[in-house]
Structures are given as structure tokens and as C-alpha cells.
Amino acid sequence: MHKNSQLVIVCRDILVDWKQFFQPVYVGVESGTIALIKNKLPINFVCGDFDSINDKDWQLINQAQEKAKFKIFKVNQAKDYLDSELAITTALELKLPFQQIIIISNGNRWDMLLAQINFLRKYQQYQPILIDQENYLFTLKAKSKFIFSKNLLKYHYISFFCLNNQKVIYNFTGCKYYSGTDIIINNQDVLAISNEFDLKMNQQPTIEIKSGDCIVVLSKK
Question: How far is CA 209 from CA 97, 107, 142, 146, 152, in A?
Fold first, then answer.
């Protein structure tokens, strides 16, 4: 899907396959910093209000900072943006070398999830990907073709949504439902929800977006 350096923003300490990233520039946000430290990954900078960090973790962050000399951007809890977006804007201000944004997060708050889905629209030029313990979200532009790699076939369900107000026309081969059929969806349709990969086929699942930009959601269960 990519051949360029990725800005990997780690917001939570969750189980992640770190080998999947290409030339990663790692940024820690809140408890995500602990994940980077535990996995001995190179940290460019960390940021947030750190309201979810206890004294023990804060001590660990400061000890790591003394050794690696990464920058800590600590902000006030009263702010008009999410810590994950602070990581994006700070990386842009620092002119870090990246072409794609990855956000690793997890949690039960739907408002935070919707806000991060909005990042898919706001930062579409950076082909953002959202990853949590169970889901993998990314966008596909109109007139594009995408082959699902083997590491994505571990997800059980695959769904498609309109990124903007435009209708989306796509053709998905290698799936259980409507394989090889042109499907038209808008923001109210549920026709493209809960499809599945057909793992019995000998070819890699492929999707062609004929018009409109869409969000792709892969879910494990």
C-alpha cells in the first residue's frame, strides 16, 4: 500500500505488529509512549497533557528521555484539540520526513473514534490509517486499485463507507458477497457492510474504486 516513510502515532499501549511499518517515524502520545519504550523503538518526540499517565510511567518516560534525548511536548488539559492531532500538527511544524500517517489507538469512547475518523478526511493527502486492537481503517481514492496483502486477510469483516458526500462505485473481487459486481453506495446505504474475504480463492482480493472516495474498515470480529 505504501513505499514512503510513515509517521506512526502511538496513542495506546496495545499489542501491535511493529514490523508492518515502513521507515517509521515514531511519536508517543500519552500511554502510547510506554509501548514505544517497552518495545525499544526509536522515539522522535512525545506529546499530550499526560493526564492518563501515573507517576511510575512518568518516571519511565523521563528516564527514557534522558537516554534518547527525544523532545517532550506537554500541554495544558484545557485545549481545543485531541492529543493525537497535536502529534500530527507538531510533526508538520517540525518538518519531519513522512508521507503517510498511522494512528494506533484503542478505547471505548465513540466520540474519540468519530473524531479520528474525521482525520481520514482532514488529512486525506497523507493516506491515514487508523489501527486498534480489533480494527484497521484506511481510505481509497477514486480511480484507484488496491490489492489486499496477506497480513490484512486476518481480519474477518470488511466494510465500505463514503468518505465524503459523493456516491462510491466499487468492484470487489475475492470476497464472499457481490464478488466482481459493481456496487454503488451513498452515505445511507448498508449494502457494503460486513463482507468477508473468500480465502478459498487462489487470487489476492482486489478492489477497484471507479468513482468517489471511500473509507475501508477491516474488523477481526
Answer: 29, 31, 5, 8, 18
Rounded CA separation 25/141 (Å)? 24
Helix axis angle for 110-122 and 83-93, nearest 10°, is: 30
The pLDDT value given to residue 145: 97
Q: 57-82, pLDDT tens digit by residue? A: 999 999 999 999 999 999 988 888 89
pLDDT at 204 > cutoff 60:
yes
Instruction: Please give the order of strands across the beta sheet that includes 71-74.
Output: 71-74, 43-48, 24-29, 6-10, 100-104, 129-131, 135-140, 214-219, 157-162, 195-196
Q: In angstroms, rounded to a whole number, what is the distance separating the alpha carbons of residues 17 and 167? A: 34
Residue 2 has pLDDT above 80, yes or no: no
Euclidean distance between CA atoms 202 and 175, whole angstroms: 12
Vertex 182, ends 167 and 114: CA angle to 5°?
40
CA 180/CA 175 separation, integer angstroms? 9
Does the pLDDT at position 141 exceed 50?
A: yes
